[in-house]
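Throughout our pipeline, every protein is held as a single compact record rather than as scattered files. Nothing more is needed to write down the fold, since each code stands for a local backbone conformation. For reference, a complete record is included directly beneath this paragraph.
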Amino acid sequence: MLIDIISKELGFARERVRNVVDLLEGGATVPFIARYRKEATGLMDEVAIGNVKELHEKLKQIVQRKATIVATIEEQGRLTEELKRRIDACFDAVELEDIYLPYKPKRRTRATVARERGLEPLADFIWQQQAGDVEGRARMFVNKDVPAVEDAIAGACDIIAERVSEDEWARGAMRRFYARRGKLVSRVVKGKEPDGVKYADYYEWEEPVGRISSHRLLAIMRGEEEGFLRVGIDVDADEACEQLFRRFVRRGSPVRSIMEGAIADGFKRLLSPSIENETRAAAKVKADDEAIAVFADNLRQLLLSSPLGQKAVLAIDPGFRTGCKVVALDKQGNLLCHSVIYPHPPHNDREGAANMLSSLVKKHSIEAFAIGSGTAGRETESFVRSLGLSPDVFVVNEDGASVYSASAVAREEFPNEDVTVRGAVSIGRRLIDPLSELVKIEPRSIGVGQYQHSVDQTKLRERLDVVVESCVNLVGVNLNTATKQILTHISGLGPSLAENIVKYRAENGDFRSRRALLKVPRLGAKAFEQAAGFLRVVGGDVLLDNTAVHPESYAVVEKMAADAGVSLEEFIVDKEVRLRVPLKDYVTEKVGMPTLNDIMDALNKRGLDPREPARAFAFDATVHEIEDLRQGMVLPGIVTNITAFGAFVNVGVHQDGLVHISQLADRFVASPGDVVKLGQQVMVRVVEVDLKRRRISLSMKI
């Protein structure tokens, strides 16, 4: 049943969905399935496999919820065969809760009180809308708890109001009405105008809830959470009630006025607040999903940003009063030494700073400078460039470096160094290999999303974890140099096995082969199967261990080499020999053309990093502060963040400028990500500079 639903909803062949689910249930990871089980999935990529996994887990939760609902209704003695059939057939979470609502244990309501007073038969009489004396019937229910006829009718109306508010049709109709006709209304909380000025745009705001953009909704809801805005969803109550009247009040009903009064009360008091909350929650989920998608895409780009590679780096964490912390790192990112220079006010020791940097460059054969982008970053970059030293100069985004420097990971790596040294090391290592360094930081601290602290944090964390895992496995890691943090994200491992690998390596020396992983405590055959293809052993005993070819396919490559009459080493090195291999001859029941093509692709790219190498960049030398900007200037910049409404670009003035989505290109742009990428070097034109609000408007329409 679940397989059929997934197949229909996602549009994948049933057999492919079944294969994916079986692999996932058997402990396979999404990266492993996407990379090494293409025959089973029909070439589904990570996104498609992830969608199958997500929907399957969602449906399993619904199945569990249905079991709870059935058990609850059965305990009440109200479970009929028809009701059970309806629950069994339902796989829509909202519809399921609508079915359950009349049976759901609830707090004591006005309708509950009326039922306790024996007024349900009177409510049924009115509900049937047959000819008869309502007041006369109501007198039959007058007693010490129901002192008057009016009280009896009022209690019956409370029951009717609740009955309508819990009716499936009514809830569905009002849900659609709110989605179609509802307006999100935002008003400033009286007396909060001065303090909530950053939300001034939303002091008097109305917009159809179905069309509001994700970033605007999240901003408004944040303003509400901080106590500056009152937010609600307005609809035409008369129009809503009219729909309900047409459904529940019979034509020519002798109790029309009573029914309409009860229904209107039920809408205002029960149904409207409930559906408004649902509508807000649904809009929030949609906004969260869009914001999380933007964040995830930005994070992927950041993690896969260009590495400098194994080069000696002099990293500088800039500062004014406290000086600039300088660290020298070797080609593997190991800390060689650290010092402090004071080239800026109030010290202005430019000569001493110049001598120190020149000495460190010479002593450690430095090949590049990595300068943090924070406070004093622009001034430090200009100073370093003015020295005319040979190493290239790179400005490194330092968002999250302070989070790392104070973390348990940093303390474990550098127990004897203070946070300033750790922060500078992080900046340098980000240049050498961004992925290896950034995986040590909580993704939400990296600062490449929009309203990341306002969205569902569990969903955000899960999505970002998937992105990190995908990026790490795409690039692969060197088994003998990888840190515990990056190994944690390798398919099939996790924190415990990653720690065991690092510990085993420290005690026994470098791994000579992938197979040696099986000697690591608690690392069994399943974990090896999932992880091996994403780990590289450079200079080991097995040539194929430094490729993306999975050990389960080594025999295929060895047979190809033997059939070609060459050694395995020659086969791996000589592309011309490989081009002559008739791949179709090696297709078997277990190995299809997708795997064979992947094997050849892996051999063609052995040892190669899929990321583009880092390129040096320089800001305009005449621009240092926002006051230096003039309308019409054309400047080089670096894309630092991408949102649903545009891209932020650093032009070297301590304040990123916004290129609105309408200014990204001379054509319609559906998504900023279609035009720019994080870390991309671009040319922009200054459109407007708002010194008072410290805002810069830019355009890529040069």
Summary: The mean pLDDT is 93. Residues 256-303 form the longest helix (48 residues).
